[in-house]
Amino acid sequence: MTAAEDAEDLLRRLLRPGRLQGFPSHPHRLDTVLAVAAGGLVRRHPYAEEEVNALLIDWLASVRARIDHVTLRRRMVDCGFLKRTRDGSRYLLNYGRVAGVLGDPAPRIDAGEILASVLAERASRKLAYARDARGGMHPAR
């Protein structure tokens, strides 16, 4: 299994409740979530804080996260996925860190698409269960 497949599998498990509940406590899992969140950023492009915030807000919305963008941004900086310029005015993607987690070239993993798939599978299981429950009942004679 590739690093990208591992990441997608982990995201499926983390998104099973229908949203990203919070940051995983296991360091490898946390790195995977942060690397996927960083996937919307472009290499060598200096971002203003507002630009990073907008991208992270969109990503968090796509996974219906219970995390705010400021906390996510800080965690990405603390864990080395984002670098800040000396004056703190710009952010840069640390592509090497992302590639170290997801493989090189780092794939773009659409966490929102994975969540949609998880929710569709859940709806399908519920529908099948409801059909089975109705089919198992016998009409009164």
What does it look like?
- It is a single chain.
- The protein has helices spanning 3-14, 27-37, 49-62, 69-78, 95-102, 111-136, and strands at residues 47-48, 82-84, 90-93.
- The chain is mainly alpha-helical and 141 residues long.
- A hairpin with a 5-residue loop joins strand 2 (82-84) and strand 3 (90-93).
- The radius of gyration is 19 Å and the shape is elongated.
When the domains are counted, the total is 1
Poorly predicted residue ranges: none
Tell me the structural class. mainly alpha
Major sheet details: 3 strands, antiparallel
Report the total helices: 6
Radius of gyration, whole Å: 19 Å
Instruction: Report mean pLDDT, rounded to a whole number.
Output: 92
Query: What is the helical fraction, as a range of percent?
Result: 55-70%
Total strand segments: 3
How would you describe the shape? Answer: elongated
From the N-terminal CA to the C-terminal CA, the straight-line distance is 55 Å
Secondary-structure element sequence?
A: HHEHHEEHH
Query: Which strand order does the major sheet show?
Result: 1-3-2
